[in-house]
Here is the input.
Amino acid sequence: MRLTLYTDYALRVLTYAGANADRLCSVSEIATSYGVSRNHLTKVVHDLGKAGFIESARGRAGGIRLARPASAIGVGEVVRHTEDGFTLVDCSQCRIAPGCRLTGIFGQAVAAFIGVLDRYTLADLVERPGDLAALLGSDRDLLSASPSGSARALRKGAGA
Here is the structure.
């Protein structure tokens, strides 16, 4: 099972906002922290806002924050929102599909995958926000000093 980059970015945005729940975060700040495109994140943020995961404040001192507590945002809920579907294989044109057991096995595998994601909330991802904030460079001093260093740490498996 492979998730889209869109889902990856959505989880990154929510993780960042959750790790910085005490303040508004800007899209530029999040993009810099992860070393990703601001334009892509803007689209993701807009969609997350429409879906009720985040809320935004406009203006000079504006930004985004979680729209509800991190403990009320399920990882599985986010993934289901951002992914189009979970079909592992398109069996619709296969001659043996009516008698094939793989369809059921694949369905069970997807259900197990989503079931594991449903056991976690955003709070589980950010339960030690100090550690995560340091990796994300969300501390203002770290952010201005070396945003690319924190993005490298994330790409090496330290984050979402």
In short: The beta strands are 54-57, 63-66. The CA atoms of residues 8 and 160 lie 7 Å apart.
